[in-house]
Amino acid sequence: MALFLVTGATAGFGEAITEAAIAAGHRVIAAGRREDRLHALAGRLGEAVLPLVLDVSDAGAVAALPDSLPEGWREIDVLVNNAGLARGLGPAHEVDLADWDLMVATNVTGLIHLTRAILPGMVARNRGHVVNLGSIAGTYPYPGGNVYGATKAFVRQFSLNLRADLIGTKLRVTDIEPGLSGGSEFSQVRFGDEAKAKAVYEGTDPLTPADIAEAVLWAVSQPGRVNINRIEMMPVCQASAALAVHRT
Ligand code: NDP
Ligand code: 8X3
Q1: What are the tens digits of pLDDT across the range 34-75?
Q2: For a pocket test of ligand 2, which of 103, 107, 186 has the largest count of ligand atoms closer than 8 A to its C-beta?
Q3: Which Pfam families does the record match to this protein (predicted)?
Q4: 146-185 exposure pattern, b = at least 16 Cβ within 10 A, e = fewer
């Protein structure tokens, strides 16, 4: 039985990862900003869930986290850096800079600060697994992906570089890189518009939060000698497109 810390557990992938971890007999510190959702989740899944209100972009709260956890919930085995978001799909020369700042603050700065806070304990125990939520957007460019895709490219390279630093320890690092996925609030958050969010999935059979959770639990449950570096996953209805050529 392992102790997980899952960020962004109030919706989508994080909620599904929490459910899957509990179903597999683990304990989960379920983190997010929406306290009502965290309590509903803990109420539904029982005492193996510890609800934790945490904004990953709050550097002070993140740094204070390891010492503020209750006794018995401090030795985190699996950190799932799932909290993240996209804002907008406009071209780089027109976007709202606040959207770019928010994506960097959450997907990059929040993720690295939390990792930095949790890693020393893992290294001291010589036990632990960091699972990051990257995206295919970190590998394949698309119009309007600008800073969102760049944050996920950062997550992929940071994951690989963590492994380089952790060589010689028993710690593991995995980057999960999903493509088009429904059943979460991702597109609602990206567009702030229900009709636009719904249109993203029309006529598709996207990945589900349960698919992502299964990949996370599979990576974590490998024998200790096995490190799954990256899992890139797409729904069958999605493939990378041809390069664009502008002709006059
Ligand atoms: P959701 O919008 O459904 O969930 C995002 C979660 O992140 C919410 O629980 C939200 O909780 C939390 N969150 C956002 N900002 C913060 C913050 N500052 N501090 C703490 N928690 C925060 O999206 P998904 O489940 O789809 O996405 C999860 C991850 O997977 C993201 O990193 C996303 O980039 C990535 N991803 C998503 C894909 C998709 O198509 N859906 C595909 C590939 C990757 P709260 O608001 O309560 O804080
Ligand atoms: C989410 C997948 O293709 O919308 O990371 O960027 S995509």
Answers
A1: 999 999 999 999 999 999 999 999 999 999 999 999 999 999
A2: 186
A3: adh_short
A4: bbbbbbbbbbbebbeebbeebeeeebbbbbbbbbbbbbbe
Spot the catalytic one: 140, 142, 148, 201.
148
- Give buried/exposed letters for 66-93 (b at 16+ CB in 10 A, else e): beebeeeeeebbbbbbbbbbbbbbeeee
> Which among 106, 152, 184 is the best mutation to test ligand 1's pocket, defined by most ligand atoms within 8 Å of the CB?
184
Which pLDDT value is given to residue 48? 98
In the prediction, which pLDDT does 191 show? 98
Quick: pLDDT tens for 158-216.
Answer: 999 999 999 999 999 999 999 999 999 999 999 999 999 999 999 999 999 999 999 99
CB-count burial class (<10 Å; 0-12, 13-18, 19+) for 39: middle
Q: CA–CA distance from 7 to each of 41, 132, 190 (Å)?
A: 13, 10, 18
Give the distance (Å) from ligand 2 centre to CA of residue 33. Answer: 22
At the second CATH level, the architecture of 3-233 is 3-Layer(aba) Sandwich (3.40)
Rounded to 5 degrees, what are φ and ψ at 141? -75, 150
3-state secondary structure of 232: strand
| 148 annotated active-site | yes
- ipTM for the predicted complex comes to 0.98
For 39-83, give the DSSP string.
Answer: HHHHHHH-TTEEEEE--TT-HHHHHHHHHHSPTTS---SEEEE--
